[in-house]
Write a structure and sequence with these properties.
With 195 residues, this protein is mostly helical. Helix content is 69%, strand content 0%. The protein is built from eleven helices and no strands.
Length: 195
């Protein structure tokens, strides 16, 4: 995929070293998951490469871009604009990197909170961001990495469950989408277990 190299060079200019390393880790982990689930590898790599392209955008600018492109901002996002990097990332991927593929743009937009009823690419990117090789802080990481190659939905639910437990312990406010997404996947698993 010829654009990938071009985008890598461009991104490297806007990111510090550790963020860029994380980005490459997510890109290759997304490719690996795409292979495991017979998904389009190029699309997974592009989503992985661009997922954090808005990470270094100043908070004021993030809010301006959301307003300009009519992207809904929740109260929690307004109070914590760093949470907007996913939604703004989708805007930048479209405007600056000329990505037209709606699936890629959607995966970038939901890669931090997740969303109910995610498609395969959404789940691949969400999981890759969490388990890429450079990550070492999360609890149960070994278990989650193993799960990722067995069942995407169960892995998403496990990540959300661990994330909510962690955030509840920190007494910060939690994005309602994260809780909504967790409930959605928990209910799906419970329903499947009943049948």
């Amino acid at each position: 995929m010829k654009d990938l190299e071009k985008y890598q060079k461009k991104l490297q200019r806007y990111m510090d070293k550790s963020r860029y390393q994380h980005t490459l880790g997510v890109m290759y982990t997304a490719a690996s998951l795409a292979m495991a689930y017979q998904y389009d590898i190029d699309k997974a790599m592009l989503a992985g490469l661009l997922h954090d392209c808005a990470k270094n955008v100043p908070h004021e600018k993030k809010l301006e871009l959301c307003k300009k492109y009519q992207v809904e901002v929740t109260d929690i996002e307004r109070e914590n604009p760093f949470l907007l990097h996913a939604k703004v990332g989708a805007i930048i991927a479209r405007k600056k990197y000329h990505v037209k593929d709606e699936e890629i743009l959607h995966a970038i937009a939901v890669h931090t909170t997740g969303a109910p009823n995610m498609n395969t690419l959404d789940m691949i990117l969400f999981i890759a961001d969490y388990i890429e090789p450079g990550r070492d802080k999360a609890k149960n990481l070994g278990q989650v990495r193993k799960m990722a190659y067995q069942n995407l939905e169960h892995t998403v639910e496990k990540i959300l469950s661990d994330t909510l437990n962690y955030l509840n312990g920190k007494s910060g406010r939690i994005d309602p989408t994260t809780e909504l997404t967790y409930q959605y996947y928990k209910n799906r698993r419970e329903l499947a277990n009943e049948h």
